[in-house]
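Progress against Task 2.4 (sequence-to-structure conversion) is shown through the following example record, which the project officer requested during the mid-term review.
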Amino acid sequence: MIVSEYIKGLKNNYVRIRELSLPDERKYQYCIMKRGGISGFLSFEIRYIDTDAYMYYDITSKQNISTLYAKKPLDRNWVRDFFSAMKKVKNEAVRFLLDSSNIIWNPSNVYRDLTSGQFAFLYVPYLDEDNGMSEMIDFMLEHVDYSDDELVKLVYSVAEQYKASGDIYLQEKVYMDVEGIKYNPDNKEDLCKDDEVMQDRNEPDEPKSAESDARVMDDVYKNAEKIGNGFKGIGERPLQLKPRAKDSDKKKRQQTVGRSVGLFSFIKRARERDSILRDEYGYGDDYSGMEAVAEELLYSDRETEDLSEGTVFVDVAEENSKVRLESETGALLYALDEEPCIIGKKEAEADLVIDETGVSRMHAKVFLKDGDYYLEDLNSTNGTFKNGLKLKPYEQKKLERGDEIRIATRKIFFR
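Structure tokens generated for the chain above:
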């Protein structure tokens, strides 16, 4: 499992991963990544602190999707944009003779630019651990827009086929399946502003012949070989490009692979969240719904039935007991509950909007965890302060009544 931490630089924010052993920077993948300029990948550098080596990735002005989509569902536009970005970044990896299995897919390490809408991915050279694709599939299952029936069917189909066939399904078939659903032109909150993706949305897909696809792949292989020839003598051969599997072989594998049992747990959670969806999509054969029963009185106190004097229960007003975010003058800014409160400048993403210079689109979050409230910086440009102390990107600090939260020049008090 990849263990990452967030670091605040002088002008930039980074996510860094510690190398277990000192890397040989002469190796091919390190050389290519340090050179940079590969579309879809976060910029990469290696830094040494004491006797340890760390890989640094610049995440300035970007937000990981687990935070960005914590309070809103994934619609069909998002699903199509994500798989389009996945296909593009995998092709880039092949073009530069990099191993696409080294791309990290878990939601906490996949980023999206809030201005352009483009996805950005981490590439870990010579990765020998899980790349997090299963976590991404789980994330889609839990956050998909369940009001879109066609999209729900697609996401569950993708999950089933991935659980059954693994990376074989992600080579080509998944993109054909996702292209079966159309973009929703009525979604005005869409982040994506990528020119290529927007062109794909507005123009109908043109059928491509097998010969044209083969010519494109031949060009990719030739370019990759040219790049690899420039690294002779380094002591490590470039990665070998895997030949494409034949269609007949793929069909045989798909016929022999059974359905994954592990998917039932995800389906069960989805059913529990939406009873209508359970009835409409009959996933899982051994699931039986829970019936609602009226609440029963567990015991009765005879004294409470008398008119005799005793202790009287007084219901405290809800407004007085709620935790609040207040201004310096004591004015109510936001009444907190179990749902997290996003503080920022972008109205579509923030619950508490602060339209002020120095405030990021999604700046900070106040949320409830294990009965206590916490403050978290959301990779903001200028940082979040608790009682004068600056938080690191995505650092969480417990809040106490009376604590001061400073965002840019604005002071907010936790009451």
